[in-house]
Design goal:
By secondary structure, the chain is an alpha+beta fold. It is 53% helix and 19% strand. It has two domains: 2-45 and 253-387, no CATH class; 51-249, no CATH class. It is built from 13 helices and eleven strands.
Amino acid sequence: MLSSSKNTAINSISWIASLGIVASAMALFVVLSVFSGLRSMSLEYTQATDPDYRIEAKTGKTFEISAQEIKKLTQTAAIENASKVIEERVLFNYKEREQVAYIKGVDANYTQVTPIIKYVSDSIWLDQNSNETIVGNEIARKLGLGLFDFNGKLAVWSPKPGNGKLNNPEDAFTKITTYPVGVFSVSEELNQKYVYGSFSMAKNLLGFIDNQITYLEIKSAKNTTESDVLEIINTVLGDKVKVKSRAQLNATLYKMLNTENIVVYLIFTLVIIIALFNLVGALIMMIIDKKEHLKTLYNMGTEAKDIRKIFFFQGGLITVIGGCIGLALGVLLVLGQLHFNWIMFSETDAYPVVLELKNVCIVLATIFTLGLSASFIASKSINNDLLS
């Protein structure tokens, strides 16, 4: 009875250790997949308005670039398209309501550089020969803006350069009347920051001279490296400009996402380590239970290192099988969320998850490394003193 009870306890601990490995592997894979989904969703918003590369002035807010220089850039194999942009903070006025935001004047190539048009109501875009505007939905809400409301036009005010010593304060500003034809919705931050207009309208509003721009936004060709793009820009424009990639434009966001991913991974790795204590305990109890049998093997000439290999292999087998089962369950859960949208974070949007081979490799590497380490630690308890 005592022996049977002892074997039952050891078997129970072994099952608990196995289930702990299964649950840990499944949880780690699901959490990594969720963070991959959140990362993709966050970066999708930046891709809506941020180009692959942005050329800025090295000093000051603006720089000059000729049509010939832009043509040289876009005729290379590494750069697919380029768009001139004028951006400045201005005052918007609509039916006695006011809102400070950025006017972003873009040329006809802008929709070829960024996919912003996907986020605009009815996919309407600007006529470059008019004073039409596309307004962020937060700005539209705060102004009480109506589309195609020609009786209530959206006025834009920008201060004129000068000393400001004028009798009439209105003479210190340039005013342009615009016609809102669309509303875009990307993210809360961008929706309350930008109003898009034509390049020529922004140029007249801000008093820019010919060839003067704030940015030149670049769409790179597929399979092009960053070094290829930078080399071409430096060759054509020299050192009068600086270049930022999309990651550099959103350095804070990228840093935050990477930090969160690492922290969550470390937390779940700690959970796996705690779960593996059960594996170590189960192996040590097996060693103690089989002590007499192990002594017999030892007396028959089996070396201690060979006996250690038996328990190391047993622990490794539990780890490999448990890790693979847990990973398979995690993959099924992620596929279920992708296809059936089990968990929603809004009425229309499912909680984002991404099934990535990278996460599969991370889970397997973590489980196998920690599990085999735990098995090695447990098997080290077998020594000559125990067997003699």
